[in-house]
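Q: Now give one record:
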Amino acid sequence: MKKGIFIWLLISSLAFSQTEDEKQLRAIYDAVLTNGKSYDWLNYLSNQIGGRLSGSVEAQQAVEYTKGQLDSLGLDRVWLQPVMVPKWVRGTPEFAYFETKPGLTTNIPITALGGSVATPDIGIKASIVEVQGIEDLEKLGRANIEGKIVFYNRPMDPTQISTFKAYSGCVDQRYSGAAEAGKYGALGVIVRSMNLRQDDFPHTGSMSYGDTPVQDRIPAAAISTNGAELLSTTLALNPEIKFYFKQSCKQLPDVESYNVIGEIKGSEYPNEIMIVGGHLDSWDLGDGAHDDGAGCVQSMEVLRLLKETGYRPKRTIRVVLFMNEENGLRGGREYAKIAKQKNERHVFALESDAGGFTPRGFSFDCSDEDFEQILGWKKLFEPYLIHMFLKGGSGADIDPLKDEGIVLAGLRPDSQRYFDHHHAENDTFEHVNQRELELGAATMASLVYLMDKYGTTSIKKVKG
């Protein structure tokens, strides 16, 4: 009889817990869809401040604005964490054309890659050699490259359903293309934009010269996908064409900036820290609405939603708006460094840095035991059409926190339109749908709630 009562109590307890979780998730989604704040915050970041390149006036304005908004939420603590960041400036607009015969030119849309050096004041004009990737340089050899401009024209693979896989399959030519081409005597590089769509928007992004001496660095620019197709077709018809480009970007000394941090102190385990965040900096071409204004305002919204729905977290929950993800990752590294110095124990971190599109699920970097627990929550998300729970990456800013026991996660929205806007002039507020943005915030808040309520397997082992 006692055994039967115990089983009945256990079943009743589980049923009550499930109902309680369903109610909390419903309250979160209802709150964001009827009284959300993320869209208004993003409107201000995008349209009143604009592109927020690290070290810029706009980046500092974004720091001040978001801190003010977090202060207004009545959190237990809000502060700025200093971090030194690189200051790269674009200068005057870039200009490029190809010349099929003397005096007959066609203008082409380009943009300097972040971190590139400038061309000479008069620009660079030279023959051009097209390659499909860095590996082609060795095949061509110095004799076919020296004194020319290298044109990297490997497109993103359209057969990849995951556009992030397509991106990772060709981004090395943007990041390392100039350093590698310079070894063969190239005068500069032009890189096909990381974009699956055919359009006239060149996409910038970070690049590195590695250990190349400053005096040996060559300028690098991205060309739009339409421009790349036109240039490639023209080269096939006339290999003797000349390419000209001019850019005046420069690297200035590092300057001080800040990570913006706010927290709700845990009611039971205040020394166990969970964070949710995005990166506050963006490239300067658009206003950084999708990359990553959306992730920042969604992360701010998570803490607001927990407070609005009356949930009192067991663990300390922080929002961290990281500075300098785009061209240095200084904010993420500094946060992890300070956390280690203070012996802080982080148990969970969630990042949103894939755009403000319709949420599909999450990816997790965690143990098999933690992933099994997370999969047990999948049914709670099904009414909101969240179905994708994958083991894999999380986010660049939270990766420095990686340690045994911590669960890292990344929000995974629908990715099919993301690279239409990524690092380009059309990454603007008008391309963000309010409902999609808010659904993403609610989805993040729901996961944070569940992770806080039930903990991770590593926490349970320590306490067990």
